[in-house]
Structures are given as C-alpha cells and as structure tokens.
Amino acid sequence: MPQIQAICVVIAARNASATIGRAVASALAEPETAEVVVIDDGSTDTTSAAAKAVDDDSGRLRILRFEKNRGPAAARNAAIACSSSPFIAILDADDFFVPGRFGRLLADNEWDFVADNIAFIEESRVTGAPPAIPEFHPQPRLIDLESFVEGNISRRGVRRGEIGFLKPVMRRAFLESNELRYREDLRLGEDYELYVRALAKGARYRLIHACGYCAVVRSDSLSGRHRTEDLRRLYEADRAILADSSLSEATVAVLRRHERHIRAKYELRHFLDLKNGSGPLAAIRYALARPAALAAIGSGILADKTERFRRPVRTGATAHLDSPGLRYLLSAVPVSAQR
Q1: Domain for residue 324, yes or no?
Q2: Model confidence over 194-235: pLDDT tens digits?
Q3: Helix (H) and strand (E) counts in the chain
Q4: Of 141, 260, 297, which is closest to residue 209 (Cα–Cα)?
Q5: What DSSP string describes 25-91?
C-alpha cells in the first residue's frame, strides 16, 4: 500500500486565474498529495497570484512560470522533472478533484496507471456549491492497448466519451524506466499519445468506475479549441508509433483506424480553412488533387449539414444518473442502488 503523501499533482495553467484556485485547493485537500506543481504557461493574467492565494502553508505548493507559452506537454514535463514523488497525477486548471479521490485510487497497488470515472459539469453548476457526486461501485478492470485506442475513436451522433479523457495517476518508476515523457510538439492528444506508448511498453492500466475527477465544461476553455495543424501532428504521432515493428497485428490494425479517423478530421478542417481563406475554387482543387482525402471531406461536409437533425446517442453513463449540466464518462452503479 503506498504511503501517505506520495503523489505529485501537476497543473499546467494558462490564463486560468478564474479557476486555478479551485483546482489547487482540491489537490491540497487530498492527504496523499505530497507536492502540487503549478506551471504558469506564459499567462497574461494573474494565474500565478490566484494559485498562491490558496496556498495552505504546508510547503507542498510550488509555482513555476514560463515567460512564453510552450503548451501543456512542455509544462507537464517541466513539472515532472522538478518533482520527486513516486506517483504523478495530472489536473487541468479548469477542473477539480472529488474529496477522497486518491484514497480510492491507491487502494490497490497492482498498476502502473490507475484512473477513475469523470464527471463533466457545466460551469454554471459549480459557481456555488458543486453538485454532490454519488458513491459508485469501483468495478475495477484493466484496459489493454487495443481497447484503449478503440475507445478514443469518436463517432458522429454519439456524445463524446473517449477514454483518453481519463486522468490516471502514473507511477514515476514506470515512466523513468521506459524513458516516457509527453511529446512537446503535440497540443492535442498529448495524453492519448503518452498512454499509447506506455501501454505498448507493457503498462498495467487499471480503471475503476468510482468518480473522483470533475471536468468543468466551459465555452472558452483552451482545451476545447485546437488548430488544424494540431490534428495533423496527432495523426503523424500515430504513424510514428506504428513504426514500431514489435506491435501485434491487432494493435497495428486499431492504430491505423485511429490514424485514419484523425486524418479525416484534418482533411475536412484543412479543406474548410482553404475555402475560408483562399476561396471555394482553391479548396476544390485541393480535394480533387487528393483522391484519398476526397471521401473524408465529402462525408464530413454531409455529416455537418445533417447534424442538427440527429439526436446525440447517450453512451457511457447510466442514463438516469445524468442531469442537466452533469454527466459521467463511464457507466456506473451507485452504491445506494445495491443497499
């Protein structure tokens, strides 16, 4: 059983003065937290001061600042490098932990990565007292590489529920022994890419359905916006992983599906960028010159045009547990349901 105060909580933050205090306070409230490292990633607001304002004077909070924005991957790598705790947990600056999260995650020690359920909460629901999160049965299971990649291929008309959203606690010794860090050229899918490489190296990724992480849904969230270039870099990251000749046929097949999935999104976004920037003729010429991209562009445009006629399909969360402004990533059974 891991000892108390064994976790470093890493928070990469940029222009997060409105939310960083809540995130830091929730991390410091966990008795297993040994360090909280905030990386102010080139903010132009008072992010650092807002983080410092909730310091509990326990000596666990450390705030570092990048003068220029370098992205979440670089910020997280810097925090990992300057910390020493045996376990590492990522917390986005918009989000917060449910009390008791780490105690539930550390109840078992047979893992290299361990994650729990996520509650997605609309910002309006957390302006006062956050909604109560039920106690769920943990239903522990291991995630293998193929199911993890498959779980990150989204489908149109289905409410997003990719398991790449999960925020596992990571064992530092596994990262160090396998020389694993975030790819700093990625600003989209940097978590997914790291976890895929870890699973390819034999990581034991344990998942429990108890809910300990609250992701706040904000219309202006930096994590909700990405550039067309970010999509290109993500599918190229899949290609780099596919260059590993030791991968099984099943792994290669699912990684290729994910690569095609992301590449199709890129082709549609690039087509629309050309249309908006250089005009319809330039966009059409681009599509006609790339027959392999033409199907992705055509199907993407058709899907966009018809999306308003489709009702999103509920997946993941148990339907009756969802409420306005609150939903869960994974299906879950409340403890109260079996009492």
Answers
A1: no
A2: 999 999 999 999 999 999 999 998 765 555 567 899 999 999
A3: 11, 10
A4: 141
A5: HHHHTSTTEEEEEEEEES-SSSHHHHHHTT--SSS-EEEEEESS---HHHHHHHHHHT---SEEEE-
Boundary (domain end) residue, out of 194, 224, 254: 224
pLDDT of residue 174: 98
pLDDT band at 110 (very low <50, low <70, confident <90, very high): very high
Residues 182, 279, single domain; the answer is no
- Taking the C-alpha atoms of residue 107 and residue 210, their distance in angstroms, rounded to an integer, is 12
Buried b (16+ CB within 10 A) or exposed e, 32-66: bbbbbbbbbbbbeebbbebbeebbeeeebbbbeeb
Tell which wins on pLDDT, 260 or 224: 260
The residue from 208, 224, 240 where one domain ends is 224
Query: CA angle, 146 as apex, 141 and 148 as ends, to 5°?
Result: 55
Say how many domains are in the chain: 2
Residue % of the chain over a pLDDT of 70: 87
Residue 314 lies in a domain: no
pLDDT greater than 60 at residue 112: yes
- Answer yes or no: is 232 within a domain: yes
Whether 195 and 182 share a structural domain:
yes
Residue, of 128 and 152, whose pLDDT is higher: 152
Q: pTM of the prediction?
A: 0.88
Residue 331 DSSP code: -
**CA 69 – CA 28 distance, rounded (Å):** 25
List the domain range (segments joined by +) for residue 262.
Answer: 228-309
CA-closest candidate to residue 119, choices 330, 319, 328? 328
Mapped onto helix, strand or coil, the DSSP state of residue 251 is helix
Q: What are phi and psi of 259, to 5 degrees?
A: -60, -45
pLDDT of residue 162: 79
Domain match, 239 and 189 both: no
Is residue 113 within 8 A of residue 87, CB to CB? The reply is: no
